[in-house]
Amino acid sequence: MKKTLFAIAVLTGLMVSAQSTWKADGAHSKVGFAITHLMISEVEGHFGEFDISATATDAFEEVEFTVEIKSTSVDTDNERRDNHLKSPDFFDAEKFPSISFKSTGYEKTGDKTFMLTGDLTMHGVTKPVTLEGKVNGIITDQRSNKLKAGLKLTGTVNRLEFGVGGDTPTLGDEVEMTINLEMAQQ
């Protein structure tokens, strides 16, 4: 009985230690968003500067994410709109230069899908959010001989709950997030 308990303890320790650090490849990742404009169209944008890291198993399970996004890097393909989004009317990027996310929970929902909960801090306000995740695939990179994982995270946040922009009929309250990641095992 003692040998069995010892074997279980060793195996559990090996499984826990199988976690490794992963980093987003900025050239092959995108932090995007979309919002309704005038209740008839959708405007898309993304953030060009971000640092995303995770700890996860080799199968990219039991994930914990840490995300830092530079709010000054917002890009909607329209300089005038981007400058307005950086202003105190929206992100107030000078006062709040970063948007952050720290995961607090992970639940596997399917063979390649999961739910990720965490705390999103934007415009000085922290609120819990839930993201749906999908592992698109995992390969061994031929150059580095390290694992790479492709992921897609999606979710919706209410911008008014974070004090981003005022209550206006020209913009939707809900912002859809789509984050496509290529993560490299370190």
UniProtKB/TrEMBL annotation:
Keywords: Signal
InterPro entries per the UniProt record, alphabetical: Lipid/polyisoprenoid-bd_YceI, TTHA0802/YceI-like_sf
Pfam families assigned: YceI
Domain Lipid/polyisoprenoid-binding YceI-like, first and last residues per copy: 21-184
Organism: Flagellimonas aequoris
SMART domains: YceI
Signal peptide (residue range): 1-23
Protein name: Polyisoprenoid-binding protein
Keyword Signal: yes
